[in-house]
Amino acid sequence: MSHVVNTTDSKRSKKQDREFRVLIGLVDYYLRTGKPVGSNTLKDAGFEELSSATIRNYFAKLEEDGYLTQQHTSGGRLPTPLALRTYAKEYQHALQSLNPKEEQLLKEIRLTETREIASFLQKSAESLSTLTQSAVFLSAPRFDHDYIVGLKLVPIDHARCLCVIITDFGVIRTEVLPLEHKLSSFAAKRIESYFQWRLTGLNQPENFEPGEEELAHKLYNELFMRYIVGYSNFIDTELYRTGLSKLLAYPEFHDASSLSSSLALFENAHNMRLLIKDCCKTGHLKFWISEDLDTYTNVTPDCAIVALPYYINQSIAGAVGILGPTRMPYREIFSFLNGFSASISEALTRNLYKFKITFRQPESKTEALLEQDYRLLLLEDKGVTSNDQT
Question: pLDDT averaged over the chain?
């Protein structure tokens, strides 16, 4: 294996240093253009002091060491996941300045004042997704002293209706409730008015059809019991996900298998929570490229993830992450994600203090058991037994 791993390697020769610079330069050009890189192209892109023949020799050595691949004999080179990983590691802590649009968004996030903490986190995640044109996920602890402010009913069929629960902090939950017969849209509205009266004590409804008030009372009690049980029995962090459709804009995801493997990872809430938990354990920015994600899924996804913890009053409260193609602009993503994490940390710390809101993490013992069981299931799915691991 080549020594092309770190620019701070004091034992590396001048030749190895040039080889490293060629690798970083090639990856940088590829990330900007998405095209294979030839020796003449790289020479014109900042390596004028090297001859094309010298660059080709470096290419051959880097290809031999697993950093580059060549689709056609006469074509340019493409970086492998190993090369992308080396590039990302090189710039993991080298933050660059942000553009005015990014600075403005972070300023708006920092200055936000609201007690609707859940809505704030969701909107912030959506803004991050829009700016980076990537899928975004964000975990959050449970915020205490929340309460229900609204209940909406949506009839589904003759035996079920969907209830949307809205809380003071902006949390939205759904529950499917059983029915003895289908509700009309008018009946649903009358029952909603009963819910609102029970929540506020204002405007008691009187226009019920026979049996509707009894049904409304029954549904109201059922919803509150479910909410209380779910609120008290907190074993998983909240997980917000958005921007998945933005992946369709990238050529890398026009291939059905590449898209499906990334979708499978992103839509599996348990896998994403394991990934977030691993990020929070490190306490700093972490990235996964292609097969790095094998720990969290059965099929190697053709994507990359960058995640970073955020804080409330200097304690890690959760993490925010970006999922995109392996050809993502790592330097820009690293810099903006650091600014984003700092901004929501500042806003959350200030708002929780101002509105006297506390928070808590999932039950650690239960969470640890669930995590252990799930990792064992993943190993079994991959055909790895306990004997194989030893």
Answer: 90
